[in-house]
Design a protein that fits this description.
The chain is an alpha+beta fold and 239 residues long. It has six helices and eight strands, in the order E-E-E-E-E-H-H-H-E-E-E-H-H-H. The strands form two sheets. The protein has a five-stranded mixed barrel. Strands 7-6-8 form a three-stranded antiparallel β-sheet. A hairpin with a 3-residue loop joins strand 6 and strand 7.
Length: 239
């Protein structure tokens, strides 16, 4: 990555205290993907950076430094932060944690940046949370090269049928499960009708919504290195 970058569109994904008065921040930027940088003195009450370094706040950030960890050299914003509350806030934190965990440093994801922005706007609106999150998860996996084919059996290439059951293998796809049902102990067997509902983002009934959530969790967990997502606990504790 260049030693100096000026006014890069970015969002804060995660921040934590660093040394006495600074913050160590993971940014998601439009041209450089995830960037880790130190905002010196940002925890001071009178810091010029402090009002801007909030989650879901569109920023223009300048960085400098040759190492893996950069230094914030400038920060601007002409827009206010997106306001999320309750489950929509928890959902935003979940989306941020997924990006912080799955993105590589300094790898461009321009398309994913737009998807992230659209997801935050959708969470601020009235669209069903389940649909917004499943849509983001599917697009995130596709952008990272792990897209799920919800159209066909990975072996025969026959279209997914509503009345059939399919076994899912991460990064491979679905294969017909002739002798298995969704009532079996395996949590990797899915009804064709639920896969079609996910493909169409029509998750109106409880069963299809739960099936979609289970599928995406399996697909994402395959790339999270066995470490659970902290943000998932927010929904559990609320329930």
């Amino acid at each position: 990555m260049e030693s100096r970058v000026f006014l890069q569109p970015a969002y804060v994904l995660h921040r934590r205290p660093f040394k006495n008065t600074s913050l160590l921040i993971d940014f998601f930027s439009i041209d450089y993907g995830r960037i880790r940088a130190v905002a010196k003195g940002a925890r001071r009450e009178k810091s010029k950076y402090r009002p801007f370094l909030q989650l879901f706040h569109p920023l223009l950030v300048s960085f400098s430094g040759r190492g893996e960890v950069k230094t914030v050299s400038g920060l601007e914003s002409s827009l206010s932060a997106i306001k999320l509350e309750g489950d929509r806030l928890f959902s935003g934190l979940y989306v941020n944690e997924l990006l912080a965990r799955l993105l590589l440093n300094h790898v461009e994801h321009t398309g994913l940046y737009k998807i992230y922005q659209d997801t935050l706007i959708a969470l601020q609106g009235s669209r069903a949370i389940e649909v917004v999150l499943r849509n983001f998860e599917l697009k995130l996996l596709a952008e990272l090269g792990y897209g799920i084919n919800l159209d066909a059996d990975c072996n025969t290439h026959a279209p997914i049928r509503r009345a059939r059951n399919y076994r899912f293998t991460p990064d491979i796809g679905f294969e017909l499960a002739e002798h298995e049902s969704t009532a079996d102990n395996s949590n990797r067997v899915f009804r064709g009708e639920h896969l079609i509902a996910l493909r169409q983002l029509e998750l109106r009934d409880r069963e299809s919504a739960q099936s979609a959530k289970r599928l995406l969790r399996i697909a994402l967990d395959a790339h999270l290195g066995g470490r659970p997502l902290n943000s998932r606990n927010l929904f559990v504790h609320k329930a």
